[in-house]
């Protein structure tokens, strides 16, 4: 290793500093540095390395960035940026184009399926996790002491989270398509941008609900009724931003329904002393992260006339989300205490 570092250091002295840095990132003891510094760095596909006189050092890192596909307009083979200005080097040569990284949806799915995957937000799985976690918490607490949660139920609820989150996003995009087109962050969504028609979105929604029904039928009768009742929240949530400054609270009621359903799927009943504090801890948790998220749309929300907790709280947001965080932890503590989980549960919160 020491010999390799020494040899590498010798090569660094013969190369521009930013090229040497990229070589350090990509090289291995068995790799060799390309003789021509304008060649691509070994083991990094499509990453152009520029001459130190033709571009500033930070341009050598362009290819490492995971850019949004919409940023592709900022570069072209002609060397012109998206604003029309010429980005040619001092020597008159065009600068190499930026390397744009797409999501797995664009890489692996056939073209006809990509708009539907984007409509269901399959490229942004964090929403699915936020929907699934309350289910997992509840099923874990419902498991017998000393036993792992039911793996079959965990798998069913995981698949259900993907489908229900996708269905919720589809409903949201169908109802908000006239608003989404006016908001910078959402105007490229498949329905708002016209890639999919409302009828196609509605058909896709039906497919997701049908698959979700197949999962719901795997549960006990008590859970089937409880699960079906959540659809009222799912379908009405997109309307809340038009009616109240608290749509994030309504989202919390919707997203954390799994805290009730997970327990019912295991116990075929509800222990309200345990599941209600768990449920409301999730609601407060949602108020924390979705209020922060809503701040990025404040200006657009004012323009189109929709409401949010970000607009309600304004400069007092930090105090509010601090209070929600305390309430979340308090409810979790109460739920764990009522479930007789012991002091370790509280210490690990």
From TrEMBL:
<comment type="pathway">
    <text>Cofactor biosynthesis; ubiquinone biosynthesis.</text>
</comment>
<dbReference type="Pfam" id="PF01040">
    <property type="entry name" value="UbiA"/>
</dbReference>
<dbReference type="InterPro" id="IPR006370">
    <property type="entry name" value="HB_polyprenyltransferase-like"/>
</dbReference>
<keyword id="KW-0808">Transferase</keyword>
<feature type="transmembrane region" description="Helical">
    <location>
        <begin position="249"/>
        <end position="266"/>
    </location>
</feature>
<feature type="transmembrane region" description="Helical">
    <location>
        <begin position="153"/>
        <end position="175"/>
    </location>
</feature>
<comment type="function">
    <text>Catalyzes the prenylation of para-hydroxybenzoate (PHB) with an all-trans polyprenyl group. Mediates the second step in the final reaction sequence of coenzyme Q (CoQ) biosynthesis, which is the condensation of the polyisoprenoid side chain with PHB, generating the first membrane-bound Q intermediate.</text>
</comment>
<dbReference type="InterPro" id="IPR044878">
    <property type="entry name" value="UbiA_sf"/>
</dbReference>
<dbReference type="GO" id="GO:0005743">
    <property type="term" value="C:mitochondrial inner membrane"/>
</dbReference>
<protein>
    <recommendedName>
        <fullName>4-hydroxybenzoate polyprenyltransferase, mitochondrial</fullName>
        <ecNumber>2.5.1.39</ecNumber>
    </recommendedName>
</protein>
<dbReference type="InterPro" id="IPR039653">
    <property type="entry name" value="Prenyltransferase"/>
</dbReference>
<keyword id="KW-0831">Ubiquinone biosynthesis</keyword>
<keyword id="KW-1133">Transmembrane helix</keyword>
<dbReference type="GO" id="GO:0008412">
    <property type="term" value="F:4-hydroxybenzoate polyprenyltransferase activity"/>
</dbReference>
<dbReference type="GO" id="GO:0008299">
    <property type="term" value="P:isoprenoid biosynthetic process"/>
</dbReference>
<dbReference type="InterPro" id="IPR030470">
    <property type="entry name" value="UbiA_prenylTrfase_CS"/>
</dbReference>
<feature type="transmembrane region" description="Helical">
    <location>
        <begin position="195"/>
        <end position="216"/>
    </location>
</feature>
<comment type="similarity">
    <text>Belongs to the UbiA prenyltransferase family.</text>
</comment>
<dbReference type="InterPro" id="IPR000537">
    <property type="entry name" value="UbiA_prenyltransferase"/>
</dbReference>
<keyword id="KW-0414">Isoprene biosynthesis</keyword>
<keyword id="KW-0999">Mitochondrion inner membrane</keyword>
<feature type="transmembrane region" description="Helical">
    <location>
        <begin position="272"/>
        <end position="293"/>
    </location>
</feature>
<dbReference type="GO" id="GO:0006744">
    <property type="term" value="P:ubiquinone biosynthetic process"/>
</dbReference>
<keyword id="KW-0472">Membrane</keyword>
<keyword id="KW-0812">Transmembrane</keyword>
<keyword id="KW-0496">Mitochondrion</keyword>
């Amino acid at each position: 290793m020491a010999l390799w570092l020494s040899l590498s250091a010798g090569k660094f002295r013969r190369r521009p500093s930013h090229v040497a840095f990229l070589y350090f990132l990509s090289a291995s003891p068995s790799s060799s540095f390309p003789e021509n510094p304008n060649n691509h760095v070994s083991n990094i596909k499509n990453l152009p390395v520029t001459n130190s006189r033709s571009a500033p050092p930070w341009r050598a890192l362009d290819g490492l960035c995971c850019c949004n596909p919409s940023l592709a307009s900022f570069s072209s083979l002609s060397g012109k940026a998206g604003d029309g200005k010429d980005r040619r080097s001092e020597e008159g040569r065009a600068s190499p184009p930026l390397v744009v990284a797409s999501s797995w949806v664009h890489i692996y799915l056939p073209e006809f399926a990509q708009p539907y995957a984007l409509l269901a937000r399959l490229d942004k799985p964090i929403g699915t996790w936020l929907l699934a976690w309350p289910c997992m918490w509840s099923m874990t607490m419902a498991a017998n002491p000393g036993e792992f949660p039911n793996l079959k139920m965990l798998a069913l609820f995981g698949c259900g989270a993907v489908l229900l989150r996708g269905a919720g996003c589809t409903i949201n995009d169908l109802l908000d398509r006239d608003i989404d087109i006016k908001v910078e962050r959402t105007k490229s969504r498949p329905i708002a941008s016209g890639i999919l028609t409302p009828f196609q979105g509605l058909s896709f929604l039906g497919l997701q609900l049908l698959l979700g029904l197949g999962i719901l039928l795997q549960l006990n009768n008590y859970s089937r009724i409880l699960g079906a009742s959540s659809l009222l929240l799912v379908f009405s949530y997109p309307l809340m931003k038009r009616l109240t400054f608290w749509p994030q609270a309504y989202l919390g009621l919707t997203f954390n329904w799994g805290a009730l359903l997970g327990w019912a799927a295991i116990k075929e009943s509800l222990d309200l002393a345990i599941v209600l504090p768990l449920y409301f801890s999730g609601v407060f948790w949602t108020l924390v992260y979705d209020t922060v998220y809503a701040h990025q749309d404040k200006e657009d929300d004012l323009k189109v006339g929709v409401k949010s907790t970000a607009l309600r709280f304004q400069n007092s947001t930090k105090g509010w989300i601090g209070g929600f965080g305390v309430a979340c932890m308090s409810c979790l503590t109460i739920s764990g205490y009522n479930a007789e989980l012991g002091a370790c549960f509280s210490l690990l919160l």
